Amino acid sequence: MVKRSIFDEQNYLESFKQKRRQLEQRRLALLSRVDRNVKKAEELIKQGTAKARSQAKKLIKRAKFDLQYSYVEGGHIKNEILGMLTLFNLGRSHKVKTERHIKFDPTDGRLYLNIYQPKKRDMSKRMKVFVYIHGGGWIGGWPESREAFTTNVAAAGYFVASLYYGDAPMYAHPKMIQNIYKALGWLKDHAEQYNIDMDSIFVGGESAGAHLSAMAGCIATNPEYNARFDLDERARHQKIEGLVLNCGIYDMVKALDTGFKNIGIYTQSFCGGTQLMDMPEEFRREVSPIYWVNADFPPTYAISAENDKLAVLTFDLVDKLFDLGVYVGHYHGEGKLAVHAFAVSQGFKISKLAMRGVKEFLSAICEEEG
């Protein structure tokens, strides 16, 4: 049972209410757009020309996506709220101090990061940084509902920055990875203030967050891949010391064939509303990190789950990293609780075992560097 709700803090209560209002406004705007597009399509069909019918078909296709997106996003919001109060934050550590909703992009007030660090930290010593990128199918997820994982990493002696990088399709590719690098740039600018080591950092996340983390790993180690993106120059060449990838997606096209629930709408949202297979092949390869890993890819600790249809993607990545000679560890959860992204919660034995592996991995990399 959770010892203390994260809603105990009044300032967080207010920010939560504000976020919920924004989400509701976005939902209503989406439904209004669906209504307008359907009416416009009906008018075009009445015109009877081939061009008008083609335009109507596109509008209906967009309306269908908007409705599916609205349905899936609504489920995500409910799950995030319930998860935040119960499962997602089960087993969180209370040995950390927290700063929430720090804006890292002066041009976009939606984007923010949360900071977690040990309460008894010696501020005279420079601390290693772990950047966490939440999952949620690229269309949802909040740093606040990943605090079981992030606070346990922080309690182990790390400065954790957990990012809110924006939801698709508003922040379709490549905006998410660009926002992540803006956050890294902000951390570099504030390294002295927090006495943190930004020379080389750890990065990790679950599901869509693991996908974006793997992209960052490729950006850090593959110059050709790095050059494809318009990144914040403060962080473009940020060194990544190690990755923690929890049930991620590393081959977008193969993910479509796994049968994972709603994977089509997730990937379509990531693409800005266009179906993945309607995007150019070059684009599909660009958003699939497995095609860009090389022998310089950061040391990696990968987590997969027996009851996760996406697990095969982790096995593919681990196999490739092993063949390349990259330092890689792999924890495959088994049993009925081994579901997609199970390690986010820390209330079960299986997730605690995964966390033990994460801490051992981080420690081993730090010792090797030292």
Please provide a written account of the structure.
The structure is a single chain. With 370 residues, the chain is an alpha/beta fold. It folds into two domains: 6-84; 95-369, Rossmann fold (3-Layer(aba) Sandwich). 47% of the residues lie in helices and 16% in strands. The protein contains twelve helices and eight strands. It has an eight-stranded mixed beta sheet with strand order 1-2-4-3-5-6-7-8, with helices on both faces. The model is unreliable at 1-9 (pLDDT under 50).
Summary tags:
2 domains; 370 residues; 8 strands; alpha/beta; disordered N terminus
| CATH level-two architecture of the largest domain | 3-Layer(aba) Sandwich
Query: What is the SS-derived class?
Result: alpha/beta
- Our measurement of the CA-to-CA distance between the termini, rounded to an integer number of angstroms, reads 39 Å
Low-confidence stretches: 1-9
Short summary:
The protein is α/β, with parallel strands linked by helices and 370 residues long. It is 47% helix and 16% strand. The chain folds into two domains: 6-84; 95-369, 3-Layer(aba) Sandwich (Rossmann fold), CATH 3.40.50.
